[in-house]
């Protein structure tokens, strides 16, 4: 059975080297990781035949509150799926007609934070390992074992992809936290330095001699 993040393996390099990755198989599937700048919108297009089952899955890996807007439209512009500020989600549909389907990711609500988004768009289903047409006998024991191993390996790939995404997201959060701690430490050091210098000058003023001026008035 398919896992939560698609059937193809996406090797995610560590941020900020997350670049474009694309894989295509018999049942056309695209896995892409891309940068989505602030106040930006990115759309993708796919030619789909009527009656084809499709699945769109996405997850925000880095940036802000890890959320984007997602919208999916059919060739007539009818909205099939629309979610606002989602961190991750999955949507499965069957194409109602032939044509170009459009799905977009939007970060227009963010004014200064860019995002890194991963998505997996599957069109159709994987062909069977041993096609049943032109067969006069049932699967042999070895063929059945191969099918079971094949399905198990697909599940392993699914979970590997899922954990790689979680790893990339966790690394991004850790680096962001480390940067904040570093800036906070620098700020504290500067404040302590300023306060220390101020106290030295204040104490010095307490012990400095005050000059007095005496004026004689002649008679």
Question: What features would you describe in this structure?
Answer:
Helix content is 31%, strand content 29%. It has 1 helix and 8 strands. Strands 1-8-3-6 form a 4-stranded antiparallel β-sheet. Strand 4 and strand 5 (79-86) form a beta hairpin. The chain crosses the membrane at residues 181-203. Pfam families: EMP24_GP25L (PF01105).
Keywords for this entry:
219 residues; alpha+beta; 2 domains; 4-stranded antiparallel beta sheet; 29% strand; disordered N terminus; cytoplasmic vesicle
What Rg, in angstroms, do the CA atoms define?
31 Å
Oligomer: single chain
Q: Which strands sit side by side, in order, in the main sheet?
A: 1-8-3-6
Helix content: 25-40%
Largest sheet descriptor:
4 strands, antiparallel
Class computed from helices, strands and strand pairing: alpha+beta
- Structural domain count: 2
Mean pLDDT: 79
Q: Provide the β-strand percentage band.
A: 25-35%
Transmembrane segments: 181-203
Membrane topology: Single-pass type I membrane protein
Signal peptide: 1-29
Protein name: Transmembrane emp24 domain-containing protein 7
